[in-house]
Design goal:
- The protein folds into four domains: 2-359, TIM Barrel; 390-640, Beta-galactosidase, domain 2 (beta-galactosidase, domain 2), CATH 2.102.20; 652-660 and 838-965, Galactose-binding domain-like (Jelly Rolls); 664-817, Jelly Rolls, CATH 2.60.120.260.
- It contains twelve helices and 60 strands.
- The relative contact order is 0.10.
- Bound molecules: 1-methylethyl 1-thio-beta-D-galactopyranoside.
- 1-methylethyl 1-thio-beta-D-galactopyranoside binds next to loops.
- Belongs to the glycosyl hydrolase 35 family.
- It comes from Drechslerella dactyloides (Nematode-trapping fungus).
- It is an enzyme of class 3 (hydrolase).
- GO terms for molecular function: beta-galactosidase activity.
C-alpha cells in the first residue's frame, strides 16, 4: 500500500510544476564548504583539489558484503569503469542493534572499506542516514525504535534523542576519513529522499521539517564533517535545500520487471528544473537507476536485467548527459546480498539489483557499456561546463529522433549533440541527420556517403564538435569517442559504433596526412580533404586502425570490440598514457622501471594489445612475463593462455547429513520458562491491539527471523476454534499447534503481510484442562519508512487480535521468543540480524565446530514427514587454488511448488532464505570468505514444512558460477566464532 502511494506521489511530482524560488545571490565561483577548500563547486561542476571533475559514482552497500577482503574487488571493478567515486549507505539498525551499544567491529567496521576505496583510487560519497531506505530492514531504522514514541524522521524530540548518538558515532568515522584528513570521503549526505511528509494521522503534509534538517546538519558539523553536504530529493522538488549542494534521484525506467520494454519517455525537464531549484550548484543526481529491486514472488533479476540492461544505459544515461549532469551516482553498481535477515519485507535474499556487477561479482554487458560512457566523459572536460542550448527534432514533423545540443558555456565553442529515439520504447530503427555548429560554420552530418544515419531502436549516440584530443582538433565526430591519449607525442583516439554502421570523423588540420589503413579493410575507409579539414568515413567492422602520419592513430571498432579496451588511468594529466585491449578486467597498471606491470582477470585465451609509450620495454600480466611482438602500427601484442584449473566441488546431495527436530516447543514436556513473558499492556504502536497483553515482537526486542509465541490457557470447557489476526510482512507464513497437535498453517503468498486465520482445536477442550497454543511465524523484516514523519517501520510482527470459538478460556500468560537475547544478541561477530528464533539457531547449532555426531543421520532431500521444522548439518572441504576467482552459489534447482522454507547457514552466516512455493530465488550466491575456500565448511539448513505430508528438498548443489584467472588476491575468512554451548539458551 505504502509502496503504491509513494509511486503515485512520485508520478504526480514528475508532472508537477517546478517550485519557483527567489533567485539566490549570483553564483560564487568555487564555493567552499564549511571552511575547507579541497572539495568546492560552482554552478557547473565540482572541483576536487582545484581541478574540475565529473563525479561519476556507483552505489555499493558495505553492509551487504560481510567479507572485508572482497571490497577491493568491487572497488577496482568500479574504478576500471572510468568512475572516480563510490557512494555508500550505512545501516543504523545493524550497528546499533541494541540502543546505545555500537558494533563497528569485524565485518561491520567501515575502515577496511574506506581503505580499499583509497587503495582503488576512488572517492567516497558517505550517506549514513539516519534513514536510508535501500530495501533494507526498517530502511535503516533500528528495531528498538518501535519503543520510541511518536513520529520518526522529523524533529520529534524522542526521535532526535534516538538518532543523535548514531550520527555522532558514524559521523566521527566519516569525518576521520574525509579527503581533508587524507581519506577518500568528498561528500556527505544526511537523510535520504526527504521529499514526502506525513502528519501523525497519516495525511500528507506538504512541508518538510526544516528544524530536523537543521539538527542533522548541526550534528554532521559537530561530528567534524567538513566536506560539502548533499541531498537526494526524490524528484526535483526543492526539498532540503539547506545542504551545500542540492541533488535529486531519478529512476526513469521504473521497476516493472514483468514488462521489460515498457520504457517511459525520458523527461526533458531536468536541466531547467535543476536551474530553477539550484542555479548555483552543479546538476547532481545522487541516485540514478542502475537496475531494479525485485520482490517475493517476483520475476528474478535476469528478467529485470532485460528492462535495465545495456540498452537502458545507452538511452537513459546518455539522456542525463543531455541534461548536463555533473554528478551521477548509479544506484546500484553492485547490489550484494541481504544476508542475515537484513532485507525489508519487499525483497528476498538477493540484492543483485540486475546491476552492472552481479551479486556474484561477475560483470554483465551493461558494465562494459557504462565503461565506454564514463571513459568518454573523463576525457571530455568541456562537458563539465556545458549546458543544453537547443533541442532538434528529426524529422521536424513526426520527430522520431530528439537531438539535444550542449554548448560549453566557458570555452564557448565545443558542443555535444545527444541523439536518441524520441520514444525510447520504439522498436524500429529511425533515420536521421543532424545540423551541427562548428568553428568553420554550420554543417549537416553525414557529410560523406549516404544522406542519413540510422539510429537503432534502444540506442543513443553522442556527436561532438570542436573537440580537442591532445593537439588534435576534431572538428566533429559522429563515431562515438571512448577515449583518447597522447602517447609519445602521437594522439590515439578510440572510436566506436555498432557493427555495419558508418560514421565520420573530421579533423581540422592543414597537414596533408596520408590516410594509411594499418588494420582492417582499406575499402571501408573513405576520405575527403579540403585545405582545412580531413574527413574520414568508416564503415564499422570489428577493428580498423588508421594512421595519419606519425601524429594520429585512430582505432575504429565495433561496440563489442570497444568493450575490450581498458584505460587504467583516465586522468587527463597523461601520467600513465596507456591503453590496453583485452582481458575480462584490467585492475591496475604501473611502470616499474621500464616494465609495465598489469594486473587483472582473464577468462579465456587472450591476445592483449598494449598501446603504451616506447619507454615500456617489458610487460607482465599478474606478475608473469608477457611476450609481445610489434604490430604494424607500433603497438605490442601478446597472447596469454588463461588457466582455470578444475576444482573438486562436493556433491551436497551425497554428503553425510545429520539432523534434529527443531521444534521441541510442540512436545508436551517443553519448558518455556526461560522465554520472555509477553506481559506489556501498553504499546507505543499506533495500532492498538485487542489482545489482553501486547503480542508485538519488537516491543520485546525481537526484530528478525522466526518468532515463536506460546499462549498458556486454562479451558473453560468447550473451546473448539482458535482465531487470530497476525502480521509478519509480505510473503510471511505461520503454523499453529494446540499442544503437540498441529492445527494448520498459512502458507503465505507474495503480497499479504497479515492474515486472519481460524483453526479447529484438537477436540473441544475439557473444563479446567491446561493448553498451550504455539505459533511459529516468519518475520520478513521491518518495514521501510519512506515518508518523513511516518511510523511505518514500527508495523507490528505478531498478533493484534485472537479469540476462541465455543468458549473463552482463561489466559495464564503468553511467552515469546525470537533470536536468543533479542537486542542483547548472542553473536557479536555476525550481528543481531543474523539469527532468528528457531530452537536450533537459539542454541547456536548453525555454527561451525558443533559435535553433531550423536545426531541422527538424514538428508534434507529425504526431508521431514509432516509439518514442523528440522535442522540439518553437514560439512565439506574446498581447496580452491590461489590466483583464480570462482564465485559459488548454493542452488535448489527448480521450484516444486511445495510449501517449504529454508534458511541457509554457511559457517554460521545466514546467507539465504528460500521459499519454494513463492520464490523467485533458487540460487544463493555465497562469497569466498563466508565459504572457506581452503578447508572445512559447515552447511546448516533449517527446513520448515507447512505441508501436512511433509516436505523435502528436490535438489541441492554447490555450483561454481564463473571461472576467471586473476582475482583480487587473498581473501581471508570473515571472523566469526565457532560453536560453544550457549549459557542460558533454551
Ligand atoms: C530510492 C531510495 O532512495 C533508495 O534507497 C532505494 O530504495 C531506491 O529508491 C530503490 O531501489 S527511492 C525512489 C525509487 C523513489
Amino acid at each position: 500500500m505504502v509502496a503504491l502511494s509513494k509511486i503515485a506521489l512520485l508520478a504526480a511530482a514528475a508532472h508537477a510544476a517546478v517550485i519557483q524560488r527567489d533567485a539566490p545571490a549570483g553564483p560564487k565561483i568555487r564555493q567552499t564548504g564549511n571552511g575547507q577548500n579541497v572539495v568546492t563547486w560552482d554552478q557547473y561542476s565540482f572541483y576536487v583539489n582545484g581541478g574540475r571533475v565529473m563525479i561519476y559514482s556507483g552505489e555499493v552497500h558495505p553492509f551487504r558484503n560481510p567479507v572485508q577482503d572482497l571490497h577491493l574487488d568491487i572497488l577496482q571493478k568500479i574504478k576500471a569503469l572510468g568512475f572516480n567515486a563510490v557512494s555508500i549507505y550505512v545501516h543504523w539498525g545493524i550497528v546499533e542493534y541494541e540502543r546505545g551499544k555500537f558494533n563497528w567491529d569485524g565485518v561491520f567496521d567501515l575502515q577496511p572499506f574506506f581503505d580499499a576505496a583509497k587503495a582503488a583510487g576512488l572517492w567516497v560519497i558517505a550517506r549514513p542516514g539516519p534513514y536510508i531506505n535501500a530495501e533494507s530492514a526498517g530502511g535503516g531504522l533500528p528495531g528498538w525504535g518501535a519503543r520510541v514514541e511518536g513520529q520518526w524522521r522529523n524533529s520529534n524530540p524522542n526521535y532526535t534523542a534516538a538518532w543523535q548518538a548514531y550520527i555522532d558515532s558514524v559521523g566521527k568515522i566519516i569525518a576521520k576519513n574525509q579527503i581533508t584528513k587524507g581519506g577518500p570521503v568528498i561528500l556527505a549526505q544526511p537523510e535520504n529522499e526527504y521529499s514526502g511528509f506525513m502528519e501523525p494521522d497519516g495525511s500528507l503534509n506538504p512541508n518538510e521539517d526544516t528544524e530536523y534538517e537543521r539538527l542533522l546538519l548541526e550534528a554532521f558539523d559537530n561530528a567534524g564533517i567538513e566536506v560539502p553536504t548533499v541531498c537526494n530529493d526524490a524528484w526535483i522538488g526543492g526539498h532540503f535545500t539547506s545542504v551545500d549542494v542540492y541533488g535529486y534521484d531519478n529512476y526513469p525506467a521504473g521497476f516493472n520487471c514483468q514488462d521489460p520494454l515498457s520504457w517511459p519517455d525520458p523527461p526533458d525537464y531536468f536541466y531547467a528544473s535543476h536551474k530553477d531549484v539550484a542555479p548555483n550548484t552543479p546538476n547532481a543526481i545522487l541516485e540514478f537507476q542502475g537496475g531494479s529491486f525485485d520482490s517475493w514472488g517476483g520475476y528474478g533479476f535476469e528478467q529485470c536485467y532485460k528492462l535495465i540492461g545495456p540498452e537502458m544505459v545507452r538511452v537513459y544515461n546518455k539522456n542525463t548527459y543531455a541534461s548536463a549532469t555533473h554528478l551521477l551516482n548509479i544506484y546500484m553498481i553492485y547490489g550484494g546480498t541481504n544476508w542475515g535477515h537484513l532485507s525489508n519485507p519487499g525483497g528476498y535474499s538477493s540484492y543483485d539489483y540486475a546491476a552492472a556487477i552481479a551479486e556474484d561479482r561477475t560483470l554483465r554487458e551493461k558494465y562494459y557499456e557504462l565503461k565506454l560512457q564514463a571513459n568518454f566523459l573523463a576525457v571530455s572536460p568541456a562537458y563539465l561546463t556545458s549546458a543544453p542550448v537547443d533541442v532538434q527534432r528529426f524529422p521536424t514533423a513526426g520527430s522520431n529522433i530528439t537531438i539535444t545540443e550542449l554548448l560549453d558555456q566557458v570555452g564557448g565553442t565545443q558542443r555535444f549533440y545527444i541523439v536518441r529515439q524520441t520514444k525510447p520504447a520504439e522498436t524500429t530503427d529511425s533515420a536521421f541527420s543532424v545540423d551541427i555548429e562548428t568553428s568553420i560554420g554550420k554543417k549537416t552530418v553525414p557529410q560523406l556517403g549516404s544522406a542519413q544515419y540510422v539510429l537503432p531502436a534502444h540506442d543513443s549516440k553522442i556527436i561532438v564538435t570542436d573537440y580537442p584530443a591532445g593537439d588534435v582538433h576534431v572538428l566533429y565526430s559522429t563515431l562515438e569517442i571512448m577515449t583518447w591519449k597522447v602517447i609519445d607525442g602521437r594522439t590515439v583516439i578510440l572510436l566506436y559504433a555498432n557493427t555495419g554502421e558508418s560514421g565520420e570523423i573530421a579533423i581540422r588540420t592543414g597537414t596533408a596526412y596520408k590516410v594509411d589503413v594499418r588494420r582492417g579493410k582499406a575499402s571501408t575507409v573513405t576520405s575527403k580533404r579540403t585545405s582545412m579539414v580531413l574527413t574520414l568515413q568508416v564503415v564499422v567492422g570489428h577493428e580498423t586502425v588508421v594512421a595519419l602520419g606519425e601524429d594520429i592513430l585512430l582505432y575504429v571498432v565495433d561496440r563489442v570490440n570497444a568493450y575490450n579496451f581498458w584505460v587504467p588511468d583516465v586522468n587527463l594529466k597523461q601520467e600513465l598514457p596507456v591503453i590496453i585491449k583485452g582481458g575480462y578486467l584490467l585492475r591496475t597498471a604501473a611502470f616499474s622501471g621500464n616494465t609495465l606491470s598489469l594486473t587483472g582477470d582473464t577468462n579465456r585465451t587472450t591476445v592483449f594489445e598494449i598501446i603504451a609509450p616506447k619507454k615500456a620495454q617489458a610487460y607482465t600480466w599478474n606478475g608473469a612475463r608477457l611476450d609481445t611482438s610489434l604490430t604494424r602500427h607500433g603497438t605490442q601484442e601478446g597472447r596469454y593462455r588463461t588457466r582455470t584449473p578444475r576444482v573438486d566441488i562436493p556433491d551436497l546431495a551425497r554428503l553425510k547429513w545429520k539432523y534434529i527436530d527443531s521444534l521441541p516447543e510442540v512436545s508436551g514436556s517443553y519448558d518455556d520458562s526461560k522465554w520472555v513473558t509477553a506481559d506489556h499492556t501498553y504499546t507505543h504502536n499506533k495500532i492498538k491491539p485487542t489482545t489482553p497483553v501486547i503480542l508485538y515482537a519488537s516491543d520485546y526486542g525481537f526484530h528478525s527471523g522466526n518468532i515463536l509465541w506460546r499462549g498458556h490457557f486454562t479451558a473453560a470447557g468447550g473451546e473448539t476454534t482458535f482465531n487470530l489476526t497476525i502480521q509478519g510482512g509480505n510473503a510471511f507464513a505461520y503454523s499453529v499447534w494446540d499442544g503437540d497437535e498441529y492445527l494448520g498453517s498459512f502458507r503465505g503468498a507474495p503480497a499479504p503481510s497479515a492474515h486472519n486465520g481460524s483453526y479447529m482445536l484438537a477436540g473441544p477442550w475439557k473444563p479446567g484442562s491446561s493448553h498451550v497454543i504455539t505459533i511459529l511465524q516468519d518475520h520478513m523484516g521491518l518495514e521501510q519508512n519512506w515518508f518523513g514523519g511516518e511510523e511505518n517501520f514500527k508495523s507490528f510482527r505478531g498478533l493484534s487480535d485472537y479469540s476462541f470459538g465455543g468458549a473463552t478460556p482463561m489466559l495464564k500468560h503468553w511467552k515469546v521468543t525470537g533470536n536468543l537475547g533479542g537486542e542483547k544478541f548472542a553473536d557479536w561477530a555476525r550481528g543481531g540480524y543474523n539469527e532468528g528464533g528457531l530452537y536450533a539457531v537459539r542454541k547456536g547449532f548453525h555454527l561451525p565446530g558443533l559435535d553433531d555426531s550423536k545426531w541422527d543421520s538424514k538428508s534434507p532431500l529425504k526431508g521431514i514427514n509432516g509439518p514442523g521444522i528440522e535442522f540439518y548439518r553437514t560439512t565439506f572441504t574446498l581447496n580452491v587454488p590461489n590466483g583464480v576467482d570462482y564465485p559459488m552459489s548454493i542452488d535448489f534447482g527448480s521450484r516444486t511448488n511445495k510449501s517449504l522454507r529454508v534458511e541457509i547457514y554457511v559457517n554460521g552466516w545466514q546467507f539465504g532464505k528460500y521459499t519454494d512455493d513463492i520464490g523467485p530465488q533458487t540460487s544463493f550466491p555465497v562469497p569466498q570468505g563466508i565459504l572457506n575456500y581452503k578447508g572445512e565448511n559447515t552447511l546448516a539448513l533449517s527446513l520448515w514444512s507447512l505441508e501436512e505430508g511433509g516436505a523435502a528438498l528436490a535438489t541441492i548443489d554447490l555450483v561454481v558460477r564463473s571461472e576467471v584467472e586473476g582475482g583480487v588476491g587473498s581473501v581471508r575468512n570473515s571472523p566469526g566464532p565457532s560453536y560453544t554451548a550457549r549459557a542460558g539458551s533454551y
